[in-house]
What does this fold into?
Amino acid sequence: MSFTAWLSLLAICCLGAMSPGPSLAMVVRHTLTGGRGKGILCAWAHSIGIGLYALVTLLGLAVVLKQAPMVFNGIAIIGALYLAWMGVKALGSKGGISDKLDAGNGSDSAPVEGTGSAAAHSRAATLAAARDGLAISLFNPKIMLFFLALFSQFVMAADSLVGQSLIVFTPLVIDGLWYTFIALILSHPSVLPKLRAKAAIIDKLSGVVLILLAIRVIVTI
It folds into this structure.
């Protein structure tokens, strides 16, 4: 995989991670109710699910490319249309990230101690953070659609083990880092209003880039 192709992969992985959805609300909830550590644990459990999706999608598309190139091209076109749809939706957004931050903020309250030991509560919260982070990625069908759209343009470039590893680990690491960033900034309340204020700009920038990437897919088929 060339460095230019990897940069394109990196850009779209960043946009995918930053796109507001239930994953963001889940990380926010565990950060606000369990603290920074629980939020970061939830983030990296979520990223493991993303890595599994990436691996399964890569292997599946590689088989399709080898056995039925025409079908692969069809998947690539559908993927490009999906990216374009995501881009148009992001352009029309009025700040989806802000909405998810608010949703996560109002989810649950912190556990009340007194019915058991503090250690038991901590263990339960830790397991819940890991479980919810992994589940919210594995059981979200939109993630599979996103990877089908994303990887269809990179499978042919992944002609070595290194390239395939980059395709799998890039979204995993980016996802973990992004939600870790969310957990960290939520530990500083003065930063949160700034993120909300820039939410609409982030959405519109993401929309433009997604549409450009969709055009790139169509042109390179």
In short: Residues 3-106+120-220 form one domain. The longest helix spans residues 36-67. Confidence is low (pLDDT under 50) at residues 107-113. The chain has ten helices and no strands.
